[in-house]
Amino acid sequence: MNGIIDDINAQIENAIRCLFGDEMPFLGFTLAKPVQITDDTTDMSMPAIIDNNGECHYVFTDDSYAIGWYHRLLSRNYSAKPGFGDNNLDVKNDEILLVCWGLSNVLQMQAEEVESKVIVPSIPGNALLVSSNFDAKSVLSGEFRNINYLNKPEEFIFSVKYRVQTAFNRKCKNKLTS
Amino acid sequence: MAIVYKNCTEDGVFPGYACDPCGETEGGRVRGAVYFHKSLKSALTNANLSLLTWWDTQIAAGKVKIIPSTRGTYDGGTKNTVTGFGDDQEKITGKTYVAVVNDPRHAGNLAFYQALENNYKDYIFGFRTEKELRVANDVMTGLEVKDPVEEDANSVVLWQANVTWIQKIPNTMVSVHILTDEVKELFSNCIDEEEAD
Question: How many structural domains does chain A have?
């Protein structure tokens, strides 16, 4: 799954450079998670990348950039398909949400055009496109909890849901050695 | 003197029935295939087939070709008959067996399968199920190898070997050997033949 996300991000970066030129600032992230923030007066969550040291990196809009995106793993389920030898293959089905935000006044494009010209063509053929959501309020309510995020009129937000299916061997045996 | 009628059993003794109260079963699928050179025909005994050293020697000599981790079927045999004698409508002369072995290792094996198809008469087929190894008692009578391509881009192109052989009476059943764990490994892993010397 991480390989596909890296590929998607590389393709999006190429598409941005191709459509908007090398100078257009963008901010892409890989897998973000909802991070809970609680204290005596606060109980909210927002998407962030948590690194191995536990540091949180905010992934949403930043005025220094014209467009940004991140991915979020919504769910994973498993199934099986016939394998070879003793084993059947396990199949992992990941449902992933790509959330994209951008400034239409800088890009000179609306959400629908960015979705069809930049995001969707960057998702490879072996990932299944599921749906896109252009309702910014609905996307925001899925990403933020108890945070009233108000996007500026020129700031668009949309999401694209896609599914990645990966077959894998649960066990990986080493070569026979004498 | 009382009249005693002959029966068709080895040494005139009818084998006993093995009844396992634990009900252990054998898992299906042709999980690995092996092609023995016909010169090994008399050596395909339980004693040899359970010895890893015997396999090592034959593999190093190029007389045994193992295809590990396959997926396939075996039809169990279909009787071959001729018109019967006496009261019998038909007489079984043997059985024809068909096995299909699907090998996912497509790249680099065209020459191997072409050679096997061209020389099938020189090889005896065997295959592995969960815990058992079945070995034909004679050379193949047919081998057709193909690699069909399906429409689905996510499908896997396989080498599909359709193996046929005949076993004649009285040994119409394919011999079954219990696999030892170390011999079973030969059918689950790719052997580095350089390091196996």
Answer: 1
Residue type present at position B93: T
CB contact under 8 A, B31 and A173: no
Domain annotation covers residue A176: no
Tell whether A124 lies on the interface with B, counting CB pairs under 8 A: no
What per-residue string of b and e applies to B173-187 under the rule 16 or more CB within 10 Å gives b?
ebbebebeeebbebb
Report the distance separating Cα B148 and Cα B157, nearest Å. 7
ipTM (interface predicted TM): 0.79
* Nearest residue of A to residue B104, measured between CA atoms: A84
Q: Inter-chain contact A84–B104, Cβ cutoff 8 Å?
A: yes
Q: Which residues are within 8 A (CB) of B7 and not within 5 positions of it... i.e. 6 or more apart?
A: B14
CATH of the domain at A22: 3.30.2000
In chain A, positions 78-97, which contact chain B (CB-CB < 8 Å)?
A: 82-86
- Could you list the residue range(s) of the whole structural domain that residue A93 is in? 2-168
Give the global pTM: 0.72
Strand partners, B145: B161
Structural domain contains residue A99: yes
A173 vs B189: CB contact, 8 Å cut-off? yes
pLDDT, tens only, B32-63:
999 999 999 999 999 999 999 999 999 999 99
